[in-house]
Protein 1
Amino acid sequence: MLNVQGLHLWRGDRHVLRNVSFSVEPGRCALLTGRNGAGKTTLLRAIAGLLEPEEGAVTWRGAPARATRDAFHAETVYLGHEPPLKGDLTGRENLGFSVGIRRAVTAAEIDAALTRTGAREFADRQVRTLSAGQRRRIALAGVLLAEATLWLLDEPTTNLDADGQQLVAELAADHLAKQGLIVAAVHHSLPLPADRVVGIELAA
Amino acid sequence: MKTPALSVAVLVARRDLRLAFRKPSQLLQPLLFFLIVATLFPLTLTPELSRLRDAAPGVLWVGALLSSLLALEFLFREDAQDGTLEQFALSGQSLTWMLFAKTCTHWLLTGVPLALAAPLAAGALGVPTAAMPGLIAALLLGSFAMSLTGAISAGLTLGARRGGVLLSLLSLPLAVPILVFGADATQRAIAGDDFAAPMYLLGAIAVLGITLAPLAAAAAVRIGLE
């Protein structure tokens, strides 16, 4: 369903992505691995449409993602390595906005997602007073609430404790069980059922 | 269900208003700057009201322009830094529309207070009370046009590390017509003449800005996010 075909991307004079091709079907997770600087983040951002590749194409449901950008983005959620949250707003306010611009969301839904990611007790504090792990839990609640088909996750377990890492694996497994798609850049593998994982190693 | 466009605009406006009121110093800074610039002129130029009155349109509009440049710094920069602007771009909603809502909110928070506070500074420059409504109207329209054209420059300088100087350089040529017609309108208002003609021209610039600026700003922001 998600198809990446012959992607080449340069950052300045560095040829970061060299002919990257893979595809992901519903219920499958592509795990991107590779050394620091191998282009995992670059690849995720190129899939999300934040970077324009010099060559190659990303297709979603058979259509070029770039040409059908808004429809593609409505089905996609991207979580970068810095959780995109406003420090001066509370976690709940952040989610009310970031999910609210995508779809109509109720306070009860936000509550349920925060409970699921273990972020409920600190969701009413301003985000800048929270630890990095707590921020990530709030951002993960945002990923759940987006109800997107395709999750693009960049190091989703960064800053999380053992519980939190387990939580990410569970959320990912649930999403895959609902025929969702995931592309995740990881350093440590995510404990997911082996038959659901497509490994992609990026060479530096 | 996808959020309708109007609700998106309301959400953007509400978020930015809330953020602004949690950090009021950022709002007050451009306003204070404007008032300080405008009130320093009577101290340095001449105490003679008739001469001050001649200089008033220029002083007020240059002050307003510089203050709006100062305020433009905050339009997209913080959102770009904490990654929330990326969420705008990836939400599946029209980025053009969201940036338009954002720019209007920015004007509400910077341009409108400036226009409303202008009579304070204008009084010190010897502008007669009868000219105040005209001054406020011209500044309201002019600052709106400046916010819109400034949004393009703010978007274009997102990628630059220290974008402040570049932002000013890019904005100034776009702002000069606004400055010229705005000062003209104010001058006519002070003289007690009809100032409809420069106001129409300011209005035309604002309409052009509404039509084109959000589109250009969205394209610029997408490049800036790379």
Note: The radius of gyration of chain B is 18 Å.
Protein 2
Amino acid sequence: MIRLQPQAATLPDQPAVGHTVRSMDAAIDVQHLNAYYGTKQVVRDVTFVARQRAVTAIIGPSGSGKSTVLRSLNRMLEVVPSARIEGKILFHGIDIYGRDIDPAAVRRTIGMVFQQPNPFPTMSIYDNVVAAARFNGLVKGRAQSDELLERCLRQAALWDEVKDSLGKSGASLSGGQQQRLCIARALAVNPEAILMDEPCSALDPIATLQIEQLARDLAQTYAIVIVTHNMQQAARASDDTVFMSVDEQRAGYVVETGPTSQIFTNPTNKTTEDYITGRFG
Amino acid sequence: MLLLCLAAGAIALLPLVLVLFYLLSEGLKAWSPAFLVSPPGGGVTTKGGGALNAIVGTLEMTGLGLAIAAPLGLAVALYVAEYREGRMAVVVRTAVDLVAGIPSIVIGLFVYSIVVVTMGHFSGYAGAIALSLIMLPIIARTSEEMFKIVPRQLREGTMALAMPRWRAIVSVYIPTVATGIVTGIVLAVSRAIGETAPLLFTALGSSFVVTDMNRPMSALPLYMFQNALNIGFPAAVQRAWAAALTLVAIVLLFNVLGRWLASRMLLKGR
């Protein structure tokens, strides 16, 4: 199994990419990404960088291809039979679509949290967290499992709420707790980055704030990419913002990327400004 | 319109009520706890004697048939629904549908020519194989439908965690739809347990209480058939009714057991 880690010896020569100087702390480096469902192009020429230990928000109106871009970052897109991508996605310099890269290794390294909390309904809270790690051979025996469980639930800010009911079904929790359980579950397989696909769209405002805070905290350790169409959320929780849009002629494309503070206070593009001030979208 | 629908509902319900009513009123005449535990006795004209031979035969053959059909049916369903790569899945699925459409007496004949002729004698094994062929397509099709309704979100969840597919199937998909799979199995057993035709040339029937499946065996439907042939001899016909009542009771019991089992599987880990 290939562990996606930069190894000096195997690092491919990085082609100089024209328009930006790529900082060394790039975790995910998306270059000229095009995505299609069948013959329909849904994402056109998307290029951006998600930094290590930072929250990158992808914002934009519905249909601008945000989720498609996100799902191509850990090869979850190819699960859809008609989906196809072109372009390059590097994770710490390694092409995740490279020929000898195992998609399962990519997904283990780059975890994902979905729009609808999806804990495994027939598993206990305990098993929800540790099952995948056990199946992947990351932990053995009760003691290691217990340790992993507590670490992940603490990281996901859920430990105190569930530590006395670990045997209960994952489905018995509230929506926000379920989503944090899913985050704990994703952390348990030792990822280096976590993708969040509108993780709060099914949650109430308080649970939403908890998840945002959690994303901030996790960014101390991981690269976080979060798709949202809640602008306040992007403004509150992210360091960098990728603004995508769509119009009649073009599939989803990137209008502007940059530090969140700059995008929200001083956008260089008129479309961005209109979107952020609520004039469309 | 509402009245019409009500009337239609009542008409649909009528046969069920009548069958149950007749079953109880006729069956109870000859039925007693002794009927369940006594070997056959009593002639065509005399009352008495039980159906222990038939009950043992039914339980053994249906049990073994299920033990063959359930894992096989589940495996076929998994292949068709989860590992559907290639043309083979379509072929397998069509074949299963075809088997489901074969009249049960033809299945009996088939097993006769393959198993009975080869072994040289009728046997409980042959009967069990015939019954398993009745159950297999039902279990395969209902389980396949169940795997199809595993929510996409759960599938994505297992994939995003890089769970090997077989682990996802065993630990997530099957438990999630266990109730449906068990319902399919109960349905298949209910159907097979009442089959007479496939047993006629396979298990043949026997008036002795036989536990060795290598010998000809009786079964409740066969017992009913053989007793009910004696029209005009109330003692025999009543034994047939009592056997019918017993059969329905076993099916009912199995239904309850299945549901209880399914709910237990769901609660596990809660």
Note: The first strand of chain A starts at residue 26 and ends at 37.
Protein 3
Amino acid sequence: MPITKSDVKYIANLARLKLTEKETEYFTGQLSNIIGYVDQLKELDTANIEPTTHAMPIQNVFREDTVKPSLKVEDALKNAPAKEDSLFKVPRIIDGLK
Amino acid sequence: MDLNKHTALQLLKMLDAGQVSAAEILDDVLKRIDAVENKVKAFASIVDRRTLRQKISPSKKGSLRNIPIALKDNLCETGFPTTCSSKILKGFNPPYNATVVEKLVDEGAIFIGKANMDEFAFGSSCETSCYGPTKNPWDLTRIPGGSSGGSAASVAADETIMALGSDTGGSIRQPAALCGVVGLKPTYGRVSRYGLIAFASSLDQIGPITKDVADSALLLTAIAGYDEKDSTSVDIPVPDYCRFLNADIGGLKAGVPKEYFIEGLDKEVEEAIRNAINIFKKMGVKIIDINLPHTKYAVSTYYIIGPAEASSNLARFDGVQYGHRSADAKNIIDMYMNTRSEGFGDEAKRRLMLGTYVLSSGYYDAYYLKALKVRTKIKEDFDKAFSECDFILTPTSPTAAFKIGEKADDPLSMYLSDVYTISANLAGIPAMSIPCGFTQKDLPVGLQILAKAFSEDVIFKAAHAFEINTDFHKRKPAL
């Protein structure tokens, strides 16, 4: 199924990517080609096939709910683009507040 | 003395016999980097010399004492930048070590630098790196393969003794093939992924890129094993893989899948593979025809599952905790959008959108769920094949190294170059690429050997037997 420019705008927003008009055009063509190719899977009947999410059989791994040593706050903040005290600092989240 | 041209096992013997010192090995590696790195560009960053010299010590113990190793730029090492060759992680200095890094430190290895890669391992050519492409040491106008292109090129150019790469759809094996070195993707779960910056968590696996098969066994022994920090690592005892070298492989059965010898396979590559199969036959291996009927669906399946997992994994690069943050942001959504648009390259954007699309409401069943079901069929193909044979022989890549820029604007044709390597990741099985010939233009060709899950021993037996009967791995590029 061909992907349209409006599809690309929609998924770019979901993926939190801002595209220029030119980029939207460029990616629309490429993504259409790729989706057109992977559409070949539709020819395969998979009605009664179980999906494989992991190649190895894996189970949940549990441990006791006890406190263990972990990253120090200053180490966790070391790479932060902006911080204040022991927190990551980000721009305003709720609009309209002064 | 050109000690940089030796393998780790050779150097360890020389060290133990007192014939060379650790400082001499490091010096030869650094001299080589000085001589060729500006041509090859295998590294994203190189550790400064004073630090490196301080790290060597004659009293080091461990199976890799004082052996220089290059780490792919997606393996976290404290104190050094780890950037996935992406602008969005420029300057990132991990607060913890990957488990493989810890293990190698314990074995006495010296990390000389971070090897260049396709951005976030998205690519088969090393061209999507924010540092620019790595060049193939055999022909500097050609790509080294990817995504672990820097790891493979640094080993091929003798700028390091060994390297680690990561393989999600062929990213260790394809560059190893194109650079004429040995690359192993272990069984999923054999090596801890803790500290490997994730691309597709159900497919990613760390593995060795080395000058020969014996070094591959040595390096896998050092990094394999269960890790409580990676709940997908598997708790099966780790043998000394060097035990499986020098084995007699007469009587073993090798399967050759006809689905791999198809249109698109270069004639010269096919000839080298047929010749390699004959060499196995001469060693007493029984060659049988097998079928892997769902092979033609592997690329489609992978380019749905891989991007889907990547779109989820890479949501964390939002400018909050680390890496690049856009200076231009009025509110938090703006910050996410601008940070990611400025920080990710085109291939990353393409895959993130592809992954988002196949997971999005209305398309999930048609694409993502469908691909998971086809993954089951691909896995079943291998189960059936391994009931008939001990290992499988195929080409690693349909062509030898292509020209830089040749496929850069055609992502689909780039994706199709992974056609032979992807299935092993989808099925979780181990696979190795070893040098098995050269084209007329003197470009290396790789043979892929696949085995059952956790049967790396079979791969080492077969690959080493081939290696001691051939000398393809001994040829060096004229740099």
Note: Chain A touches chain B through 51 residues (CB under 8 Å).
